[in-house]
């Protein structure tokens, strides 16, 4: 009986940890970090990428780590520069 309770507690603890890890991933746009994680394996076009970066940065620290936010800000700046060079501008 005690072994059953201990085993159940261990399993429930692992489920709780997995749920906490999964929760950290909810709302993150992983395609902005690695093209292999994009839907269908295709990278966003530059205008869509800018839009996705803007949305991700609006979510801020409630979804992304400080390191991820730094990466997103750098990527947004680079994307803005490219859009300007192409004469598209940001919308």
UniProtKB/TrEMBL annotation:
Domain of life: Bacteria
Signal peptide range in chain numbering: 1-20
UniProt entry keywords in alphabetical sequence: Signal
Name the record gives this protein: Uncharacterized protein
Organism of derivation: Geomesophilobacter sediminis
